[in-house]
Amino acid sequence: MWMQLNTKIFIVLLFLLNIKIFSQKKIKQLEKVQVDILYNYYEQEGNNAAVTGGFGTEKLDNNAPQISVSIPVNKTATFGVTLGLDHYTSASTGNIDKYGAITSASTSTSTAATSEANLASEDTRKYLSLNFSRLLADNNSAVSILYGYSKEFDVTSNYGKITWQKDSKDGNKFLSINVGIFIDKWLLIYPGEIRDGRNTGAGGGNGYDDDDDDHDDDDDDDDHDDDDDDDDDDDHDDDDDDDDHDDDDDDRPVNLNYSARDDDDDDEYENQKATTFKGYDKDTRFTYNIGATYGGTINRRLNASVTAEVIIQKGILNTPFHRVYFKDGIFQEKFKVVKSERLPKSRIKKALGFRANYFISDFMITRLFYRWYSDDFGVTGNTFEIETPIKLGDGFTLYPFYRFHTQTKSMYFQPYGGHNLDANYYTSDYDLAKFTTNKFGIGMKFSPVNGVLSFKINKKREFQFKSLEFRFSSFERSTGLKSTSITLSNTFTF
After folding, report:
1. Which of 11, 259, 425, 479 is most buried, most CB within 10 Å of its CB?
2. How confident is the model over 212-230, as pLDDT tens digits?
3. Whole-structure pTM value
């Protein structure tokens, strides 16, 4: 579930921290081992959880430590590895079985369902990425290969990306092309009352297009790419609160509900997780993306780049435990017709972005970013961002930033109880609703020329604590979702 906030956030960080060579600057080879350590705390509140049909708490907390190491292999090659965790508590996923499991099966079935809800409301997503980059013979071009893996309670993901960059001979222009694929395996966990066959109407309730001929059981991939967001932001703010919610069908606004387990019982907890989710069917989502960026120095004060990207998704694009309630004339929720979210099995996303850095003076820069996004679910989005780093002297930089995003509603979205009973596709996930968002914040970076701290390890090596950074952001969506993100990071070399 975190993937949606992700969606984004930490995948973005993986690429930012690992692919140093492709930072849309002149190609440069690392000379020392570089270590980046980052910690992010994120919390959100809202009242439109998709798990409860578009009405209900979206409260979520996430703690996310991450470490990234880049190692120069020789004069032309660098190897990188990133490890991280997202530990979240979510009230909305705790509502997967909000009515309990009313079945004619044994008591153990009900107990398992209760355990399921508890385990889903608190989980840890673990991820790893490996990156290898190499300067090519002409020293003006480079190639990078990245592989990543992540796992949480309902999704296991593998992803890969290849990037090629070519600089002009004078280093003032560059072209970068990347191709990527995500393969996500989803457990088909439906809400309790749908698993029990209650109130699902004549058409059944799982939202699963069983009779689709072209359904390939492992055809999908998560919105990891999620891409309408400006992943390329250099700000390590993993603000999953990114408005780019427009991009994520797998976005699952979730809520906080600590499970009743004892902190000491970690082994028992892991064993319980392994057995609780064992019997579910699986499905796959494939996401393919290709992007290109061209940019360079326009004059002494201005450099700019333009990026185009196409993303194609195939497979399970709905989230199985998202409920949808229908316009059935019944007002008591327990008796309303409810089904699992149902969406088409393919989606095409297109995005075009523009980025510019204008050097106002020796101590002030203005960074501008604009992005247009559109997909065949009917969502069109526009994002504008401005960041103004101000050098205060002695290595201190202060950078306020603001981001505005607006998007149109998907043709498949209706709020709680708004869908007609004969609808073919339906969702009440507010990431696909019409909304505007505002995100603003401030960052502080301390990065002296000679580092914060340095000392000799031996005659040839020196340890240098290069920088320390703090970033705070606050996010508001017109639907009522609010979030806060705090990020601490530091970099050192040796």
Report:
1. 11
2. 433 333 333 334 444 444 4
3. 0.78
